[in-house]
């Protein structure tokens, strides 16, 4: 069964990705596509940018069953970023980020999509406060509202969006994870997609990934391997 149109939000970096049902976001998948990057609006740091690009998720972290396709950032991503930041009670991302890198979109089968991002911010305190906001009581309603808004841009039919906090990757103290359950009706048939959103910090680095599949959630072992691969590539004193 092919993927339905879902916009997966990566937080705190915030970015959005849209991959229509089964359609390839690029003409030809490559063995490993270089990570996309976005130059931050304030206080860019070249060393941070290099570190973010070096750490972000790669095809080898997931395995040979995946294909890497270029990620094209939505023109509404900045708007969504601002809406979410305000909802969570945090400053706008551009105020404190020094670097940002996105992975390719990694696709497996008809419905599995994985997308990741690494952001550096101006201090460890900022990174800790961003994560704390995602762990707080505002997070679930803010995230649910954002994803529902993103979906409504694409479809006018019935849809249901639920979000719950899930047990995060083990052996990580500074991490939070949520699972979105999205049900839409396609040609009279209900289709369920699961999106796991995992956010972790290490020093000034914020690492995020979304794992999306149809009918079943992505295996925990895949999520753990991906997150640890990125975190372990960060500089020792990030």
UniProtKB/TrEMBL annotation:
<keyword id="KW-0732">Signal</keyword>
<feature type="region of interest" description="Disordered">
    <location>
        <begin position="21"/>
        <end position="50"/>
    </location>
</feature>
<protein>
    <recommendedName>
        <fullName>Sensor domain-containing protein</fullName>
    </recommendedName>
</protein>
<feature type="compositionally biased region" description="Low complexity">
    <location>
        <begin position="21"/>
        <end position="31"/>
    </location>
</feature>
<feature type="signal peptide">
    <location>
        <begin position="1"/>
        <end position="17"/>
    </location>
</feature>
């Amino acid at each position: 069964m092919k993927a339905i149109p879902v916009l997966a939000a990566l937080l705190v970096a915030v970015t959005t990705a849209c991959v229509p049902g089964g359609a390839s976001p690029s003409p030809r998948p490559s063995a490993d596509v270089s990570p996309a990057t976005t130059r931050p609006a304030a206080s860019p740091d070249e060393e941070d940018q290099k570190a973010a690009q070096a750490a972000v998720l790669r095809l080898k972290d997931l395995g040979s069953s995946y294909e890497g396709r270029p990620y094209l950032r939505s023109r509404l991503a900045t708007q969504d970023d601002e809406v979410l930041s305000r909802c969570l009670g945090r400053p706008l991302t551009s105020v404190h980020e020094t670097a940002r890198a996105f992975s390719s979109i990694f696709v497996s089968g008809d419905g599995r999509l994985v997308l990741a991002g690494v952001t550096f911010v101006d201090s460890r305190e900022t990174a800790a406060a961003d994560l704390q906001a995602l762990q707080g009581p505002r997070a679930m309603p803010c995230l649910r509202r954002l994803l529902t808004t993103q979906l409504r841009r694409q479809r006018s039919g019935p849809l249901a969006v639920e979000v719950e906090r899930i047990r995060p990757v083990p052996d990580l103290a500074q991490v939070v994870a949520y699972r979105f359950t999205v049900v839409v009706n396609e040609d009279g048939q209900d289709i369920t997609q699961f999106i796991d959103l995992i956010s972790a910090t290490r020093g000034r680095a914020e690492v995020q990934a979304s794992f999306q599949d149809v009918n079943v959630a992505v295996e925990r072992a895949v999520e753990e391997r991906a997150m640890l691969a990125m975190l372990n590539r960060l500089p020792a004193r990030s």
